[in-house]
Specification:
This protein is mainly alpha-helical. It is elongated and about 70 Å long. The protein has helices at 6-9, 16-61, 68-104, 107-149. The mean pLDDT is 88. Helix 3 packs antiparallel against helix 4 (107-149). The protein has one domain (18-149). It is built from 4 helices and no strands.
């Protein structure tokens, strides 16, 4: 005979206050995602112009990289925009699905929206761990470089 726990029988109900909070969160998330997409677009435009500007600067200065420095800077801006795209996309999908869930009283859309919110925070968390690890490596190599520089 199989026993079911209390947690398996538990069904979460949202009261009106929680629904109002989620509706407001969805509105702000939509606003922030639109601003994020505009920022990504501007970053891509800057990538084109930064590539051109840095290429002409590299050629004029006659550095070791020459005009390829512009292509490298353009690639850096495109890379940053690509990384920035995913959390903004997840935030956008969360907001659209949350709005749909409350508009149509659709619990499946609400579950989907919360899944996108989870993905957003998971991406931000993993990215933060990677940045902190990079800072730690820079700190360690800085100390090692200072010790060998004596």
């Amino acid at each position: 005979m199989e026993e079911t726990s209390v947690f398996e029988k538990f069904e979460l109900q949202l009261d009106q206050t929680a629904k109002d909070f989620l509706k407001e969160i969805a509105k702000w998330a939509y606003f922030l995602s639109i601003v994020g997409f505009v920022g990504i677009g501007l970053m891509l435009v800057i990538a084109v112009f930064a590539g051109t500007i840095f290429a002409s600067m590299g050629s004029a200065m006659g550095g070791a990289f020459g005009s390829s420095f512009g292509a490298a800077m353009g690639f850096v801006y495109v890379f940053i925009a690509a990384i920035y795209f995913f959390p903004v996309f997840y935030l956008f999908k969360f907001s659209v699905n949350a709005k749909k869930a409350f508009r149509e009283n659709d619990s499946e859309a609400l579950s989907s929206s919360l899944g996108y919110l989870k993905s957003h925070y998971k991406f931000i968390g993993i990215f933060m761990v990677a940045i902190l690890a990079l800072y730690a490596l820079i700190f360690v190599f800085g100390i090692i470089g200072a010790l060998f520089g004596r």
